[in-house]
Write a structure and sequence with these properties.
The complex is a heterodimer. By secondary structure, chain A is of the alpha/beta class. Chain A contains ten helices and nine strands. Chain B is of the alpha+beta class. Chain B has a single domain, classed as Cytochrome-c3 Hydrogenase, chain B. Classes of the chains: A alpha/beta, B alpha+beta.
Amino acid sequence: MLLSQDKKPTLIWLQGVTCNGNTHSFLNLSYLELLLSKFELIYLPFMEVKYSFFDISKCSLSCDVLIFEGTFDPLMQRNGVLLKDILIHYANDAKHIIAVGSCASFGGMFKASAPDRNSGLLYDGDDFIGVLTKLYKKVINLSGCPIHPEWLGYTLSMIANNKNIKLDDLYRPVELYSNLSHHGCTRNEYFEWKVDAKNFGEKEGCLFYEQGCRAPMTHASCNKILWNEVSSKTRIGTPCFGCTEPDFPRENFFKTKTNMSIPQDIPLGVPKRSYLTMAGIAKTFHIKRLEGKLIDYKTTD
Amino acid sequence: MIIKQLIEQIEGEAFVSFDMKDDRVEFSTISFAHFRGMEMMLEGKNVLDALVITPRVCGICGHAHLMATVRAIEDAYKNAGFKINLTDKIQKIRELTLIMEMIQNHFKWLYMVIIPELSKIVDLSLVKEPLKGAFSASIASKIIAIFGGQWPHSSYMVPAGITCDPTDIDIVQAQNYLDELISFFEKESLGVSLEKFLSFKSCKDFNDISSDISNLEKALISIDMHHKGFSHDRFLIMGEHSFTNVSKLKHTRTFKVNSKYIKTEEAYSPNEKTYALNALYNDEYYETGSLARMMSNSIPIIKNMHRRYKDSAYSRVMARIFELGYMLNHAKKLINGIDIYEKSITKVENIEKVSAKGIGIVEAPRGPLIHKIELEMGIIKSYKIITPTQFNIGSSTPDKPTPVQLAMKGLTKEEALFVFRTFDVCSVCTTH
């Protein structure tokens, strides 16, 4: 759905059960001021704009773009009003609804606050049973815990520019969620030759085999569009926790589940037999360069 | 007459019920309505999962939660009879990223909260530029991301180490971003060099400069905030760091502390349901955060400020701004001292061998953050979190007011709402 060119789209940012992580991630956006200038800001939780939440909770205003952060709890009240009533009031009139973060997309971390009733706007995990399923055509999911600021920057820019955003099966922009978090990881060569990281705190080795890294199974552009413009989890040696997927949070984040020393979950879309064949061959080689330190400071003294 | 007020932009929201008498606050209670159940969520899980879950308690100070978790786990290791040796490099990098989170918090508080809120109640015209807060905070976040991969919600601290293995270029990048941030602070906030600012001995030194900070200082004085917002004049610092002096202060006298005297109790909130608990030390309420830390470090200008204006709203605000400069300077020393050749992680036993209790205490932006754990073969039996806002923004009875309740007493409603924010409130942490 396109917006008229003659006036700025109006924007409201609502919050459910949240830690504000998406808000603070978004505040890192390098072109934040420019982006915000393209919208008429009706309400933001992080800075004073046209209206306060007191005004918003009366449900007498409307917006073109509704951003929702946090898990949806049908019993949650804000300023004495059911969040459900506030959400549905603004969602009905909005032209675009953006679920920012995995909580708003799939239930995420705070689904566990009240597992029987909390969910994302469209999904509860990967079940399409959320509160806004009737309005699904207007919803864009930006999963991630938290979202990368550029992901919301891209989505809002496309809306401000009247451009159509193509979505995947989980209503996430294909532009942002077609890559795997694995793509662009500086440890890719270790993955290819099956050289695992024996420990944390090292530049060398792949974290997929022992340390629980979910990057080959996770749709995210974390290693394409770097975090805070400088790095990513896997680049600095922390495994990917798969935070953009409907099953986040999983358990045992720092350990790869294996069956007979083969990772239980293998890279997305790769047939198990193909993976095992390839991995078996790669493991028979010993690549000296990959078994040593990446930078040998001793010889450069 | 009871007036109920919704307070926003405090990392979530709270209600304050003011009992007004002759247009002055006679008494107030505070309630936090949104429960999330993080402690319950952690029970039964491998404790290493807490390194991923607890940063998600809070979007603005999640890194402090990560450090509290890793300290609690390391303490449990020690209590189970296993040694934990941290290299100087591990300790310096952890401290650096913790400090950078504090700095991003203070910049946001300054530009997105305090200046806009103060401008509502002063006649002087204050320039409201909230996005200056976001911009400066984003530079601090880059420094965390160089070592932690990302901010918010990094999980790069692990028992006995850190996951990163920085090289010279990482250090150089971090130094450059820090220099950029210091330059921003000097040019955009202070109007003088950081070195000059840190040499200030008296509040009068602000008279010679014209900047965001000097305008803020003048505005505070113009509405008598140096004579308002007084609390108990008791301060508590619990997190052990290279930049703290763990202690409690009663007025200016310093005493030793022990974490065993920290406890929580039900909040008193007769008008609204609240999920917050009050935190006390040895059955007394203490103020925590920047003013407490700067007092305990015997910073000349803060001592001078305190001598003249005690623990007024003015002292509370200016101590936080001074801490920004103090921490930027300290961060510089930390980065320069990192030896990349040292180990990023040291040998540690498998967590499944640990059945013990542990406590992790850090200084978060708002004060002591305490994580207490009990493990059985590495699995969490219980996890308790006490956050700084529980110390500052408790809600108690009139005979035993918490720091914020006392600080708001006797003020107009508008003044009280401003004083409330001088504590820098974190709603999401409080209702973890």
